[in-house]
Write a structure and sequence with these properties.
heterodimer; A: 4-stranded parallel β-sheet; 13 strands; globular; B: alpha/beta; 4-stranded parallel β-sheet; binds iron/sulfur cluster
Amino acid sequence: MVWGPVKDQITISHGPVGCGQYSWWARRNYYNGQTGINTFGTMHVTTDFQEKDIVYGGDKGLDAAMRELKGLFPLANGIGVLSECPVGLIGDDIEAVSKQVEKDLEIPVVPVRCEGFRGVSQSLGHHIANDTIRDHILGKGGILEEETPYDVNLIGDYNIGGDGWSSRKILEEMGLRVITQWTGDASVNEMKIASRAKYNLIHCYRSMNYICRHMEEEYGVPWLEFNFFGPTKTYESIRKIAALFDDTIQANAEKVIEKYKPVMDAVIAEYKPKLEGKTVMLYVGGLRPRHTVGAYEDLGMEIIGTGYEFGHSDDYKRTYPVMPEGAVIMDDATSYELEEFTYRLRPDMIGAGIKEKYNYHKMGVPFRQMHSWDYSGPYHGFDGFAVFARDMDMTVNSPTWDLVRKKK
Amino acid sequence: MKILDHNELFQRPEYLEQFENKRQFEGMAPPEKVREISEWTKTEEYKELNFARKNIKINPVKACQPLGALLCSGGFQDTLPFVQGAQGCAAYFRSHLARHFKEPSVAVSSSMTEDAAVFGGMNNMLEGLENAYALYTPKMMAVFTTCMAEVIGDDLNAYIRSAKGKGTIPEDLPVPFAHTPSFVGSHITGYDNMMKGILSTVTQGKKGEPNGKLNIIPGFDTYTGNYRELKRLLDIMGVEHTTLGDISETYDSPTTGEYTIYPGGTPLADAADSVNGVGTIALQRFSTAKTMQFIKTEWVHKTETVTPIGIKNTDAFFEAVVKITGKPIPKDIEDERGRAVDVMVDSHPYVHGKRFAMTGDPDQLLGLISIIMELGGYPAHIVCTNGDKKFKAQAEELLSQSPFGAQGQIYTNKDLWHMRSLMFTEPVDMLIGNSYAKFLWRDVGTPLVRIGFPLFDRHHLHRVPIIGYQGAINIVTSIVNTVLDELDRETMHTASFDVIR
Ligand code: SF4
Ligand code: SF4
């Protein structure tokens, strides 16, 4: 998840064909580039393990595969090897293979052990991916012509539906120079030069906090968490970020807020009357349960329940303060429990993932996917909030829900 | 209020400027270089290099076995699919089916972790079966494996016996199982293995009085419309039948305000009684080979395999039904055939002589080759990642039966990156494939007719049948109208204004 969006490296699903097939093109990390030529984000590249690979090991095949890839895709600037469950079990040494190929091909080759059985959840995968970035890429050369006091990294934004771009726009308008985007629309070069920024501005805390702590200790790059969901939080974050810098930036920040406030007020004027008082239940991974609360509140909506699929205790610590009183917080609920909550709390809409989506459609409960933005977005930043508001309106107020003939 | 969505928003000058400015940090090749490489990838030389690769697949058209097992299990009533393996896999299968059908997809997993890797998956399975049974009260649990369970060598049969022995689950609960290693075959193999597992379990000791019914095994068929169409046709013929693995309700259930975990499927009593049927027709060969072998030897009744895609294949299907049941073909069905032929005759001018690239599962491809040739089109590049030698031989035999097969080349174990080379070096007029084929449409610009699995990026296509005479009408309609849409787009600024076609 963390490493996948880097656009000019080829990610190999190393193992049987399944995992890569199911994740192929499924995450909406937008990027600019020509797919198959200089970028490879929406491709499914796999060593497609057969029985003989399980019996005799897949290292040799992997080695040959990487060389074939470099021949076919000369503009690839890196290779990521995501090893699937069986690879760890048969005792392959993908690290050794990667090291050799890295030397021969002269591009970074990053082995990532993502085997699902290794941890209870996706978040361990985040940790592992962070470590590999630290060990293989960060601070290892890269091109950055000059450094300025305004250089920042935009961290923990995967550019779902272009989220990162609408966030970047704000930072640039503030006069900051975003030298890297991690990892939505990122390039290998951006992964390398991040250690030379003055600050890490971090949106998804869960997936990227390890690497930010590392950059702080090793390179003295301090980090700051921010939140660009909804105007209230965005204004707050803009000021918080600006406070790290000089008067010029602080003055710019006020100008940016001044420029967009009328636009945001117009969005609120349009949608708040339709959404005021509506209740929301959220069940999604990473930062969204906590981060999106403000955006809903800007529209007059109320969060009555929230939960994480793979939260840690520090996530919950960060969640309690932003939650309205009386809201239910769930941890790792089963679909069964979610339905139970729905029947009891009767929210006006639910935000969760694809595995829940159609259950709620059957129940006639307004639903929005909050991983993929239901193929919409962006939702971050000012441009994103307009889309978010419109989407929540169409979710809650679609006349199709009224056609459902619910049994009494 | 005008809201700018991503498609418009990121084309605005401030964003284009942002993208341009970002390039200085990206350290990627300059545009001239990108153009040069891009042109090179369209050449014969690149094609050779591409076809020489042996160790890597790029955009393959196949999924892993357990996905097929999940689809199959969903076709039986009150049946809970149980994945022996890591939780991530089960989540993947469910999401994949949910995205295609736009329906809930149910499965539980035994959530195997590192412990299981060391000690085996027995404890996970016993606990999993117990919990799942208590929580979801299924009448049957269909167990299949992920590659993790296969690599550590879990013995499903022994585990299930042990679970029953310990009273974790009731002794009389049917728990069919299938080993579905993802490093062997593909989703169609998994379907076959699970179907065989289910049928052998539920029919055990049920051999008795003949019930006069016809069994149908659809195979890995993700068109809910096909299941309904089949039922309609056999009802018209007055043929009593059992569809084994009927997913039409499971993956196309009504919205009623209530979510039910088991919305449909073949009733278990009917499935058990299928051993007493007059015969079994499989609608796919490559996803039912082992199952049909089992039926032939164990049930000792008549079996046929025919995929009713296209006119001749549908004719063959009805002949098979007649042969097994002795029922005549009623006039209604004759008329349907006549209407389908009428459609083909009307539309042929826009398809005749056109070259087609196609990709998908083996049986579907055989059907498509057939109907394209019937229309006077030329199947050209046929890429079947999960096709084997038998498929290749059968497809080549089919092509040799018509002058319109002369341009056809069968590529098994190849992928869509191979297809890209083929389409650049030997262009075609039209492409048939699943949603992933969209990148070929984006790269090469060849119009795409979406047939196959998965279909993610167009709505409700899977509800429209592609089998039978009506299915032929539907296929022709989408092909000919894609041709005409394209023609209109191309001639928008020319004198060719035709509104009557
Ligand atoms: S780990 Fe194996 S079974 Fe699971 S999705 Fe991947 S290939 Fe399929
Ligand atoms: S964790 Fe397992 S199921 Fe998930 S992608 Fe990795 S290998 Fe596949």
